[in-house]
């Protein structure tokens, strides 16, 4: 199933699910060691692929049972030159891994698509630096040049879309959107925020979204918020400004802890799945256009099921 079947700019009140917190589930629930929080090396071994498949099938099954579509991520959040280099991957090996990630995801979603479910294979791009703080700051042009090889690999392997996940400042996000546009793929930009609702850069969500739209002529299909608890950004989603309408998805953390607290945590904080579902319901009641629903750190199938129970 490809994005020719669904226009990401015209979702209306269509609901699409995503998975939860991939890396936190693998580390804290499965007991895996993920150096640098990178899941993509698991694609290089049969056992790793099996673990990833078991993880994603939980969420694909939930989406199928609820009769909604699914955005199937590639496990490539860390598969860029800086993080890949720390893990010993050459640029050539990274490109091959990113292409393989798309074909692997396509095969995983194929049985669901064959039964009529919309499954969008989503090439995931992560920040060049840390996902909780701003480092390795780039201009928009520098970010486009940095990320374009990964995005081209996704395109060449047949990805349906590209998502920049856990973006900490606007210019890197804009560069990724430009790289996706140059590669002929629709893009989604997902910002993370601190407990005050502002990006780690200090930008407001409004400023960040409007900056990306201004610098890319509105290239992203839509924007998202991820890796933050709803209590961190609920108050800033106010008014009827056009920027709020550009936010179509949320992938919240299970925990209401700050990024600094989560970074230092040695145990998983799963929060309250039922309460998280209620918060999504309240958000949907206010903003019916927010229909791409999933989770981030600390969330698992229980949280996604609770979100569905509350919202569908």
Automatic annotation (TrEMBL):
Organism encoding this protein: Mesorhizobium waimense
Lineage: Bacteria, Pseudomonadati, Pseudomonadota, Alphaproteobacteria, Hyphomicrobiales
UniProt cross-references to PROSITE patterns, sorted A to Z: HCY
Keywords carried by this UniProt record: Metal-binding, Methyltransferase, Transferase, Zinc
Residues where Zn(2+) binds: 227, 296-297
Protein name: Homocysteine S-methyltransferase
Example GO molecular function: metal ion binding
Cofactors required: Zn(2+)
Example GO biological process: methylation
């Amino acid at each position: 199933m490809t994005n020719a079947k669904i226009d990401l700019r015209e979702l209306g009140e269509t609901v699409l699910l995503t998975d939860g917190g991939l890396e936190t589930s693998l580390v804290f629930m499965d007991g895996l060691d993920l150096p640098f929080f990178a899941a993509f090396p698991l694609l290089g071994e049969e056992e790793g692929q099996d673990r990833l498949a078991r993880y994603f099938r939980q969420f694909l099954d939930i989406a199928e049972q609820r009769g909604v579509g699914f955005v199937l991520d590639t496990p490539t959040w860390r598969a860029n030159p800086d993080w890949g280099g720390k893990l010993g991957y050459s640029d050539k090996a990274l490109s091959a891994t990113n292409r393989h990630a798309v074909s692997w995801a396509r095969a995983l979603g194929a049985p669901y698509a064959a039964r009529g479910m919309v499954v969008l294979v989503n090439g995931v791009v992560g920040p060049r630096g840390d996902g909780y703080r701003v480092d390795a700051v780039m201009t928009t042009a520098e970010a486009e040049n940095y990320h374009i090889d990964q995005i081209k690999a996704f395109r060449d392997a047949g990805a349906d879309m590209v998502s920049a996940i856990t973006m900490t400042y606007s210019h890197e996000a804009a560069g990724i959107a430009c790289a996706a546009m140059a590669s002929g793929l629709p893009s989604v930009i997902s910002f993370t925020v601190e407990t005050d609702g502002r990006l780690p850069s200090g930008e407001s969500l409004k400023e960040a979204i409007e900056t990306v739209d201004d610098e890319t002529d509105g290239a992203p299909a839509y924007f998202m918020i991820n890796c933050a608890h709803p209590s961190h950004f609920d108050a800033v989603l106010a008014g009827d400004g056009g920027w709020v309408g550009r936010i179509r998805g949320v992938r919240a953390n299970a925990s209401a802890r700050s990024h600094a607290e989560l970074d230092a945590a040695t145990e998983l904080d799963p929060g309250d799945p039922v309460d998280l579902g209620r918060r999504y319901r309240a958000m949907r009641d206010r903003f019916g256009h927010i229909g791409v629903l999933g989770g981030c750190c600390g969330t698992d199938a229980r949280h996604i099921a609770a979100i569905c129970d509350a919202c569908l």
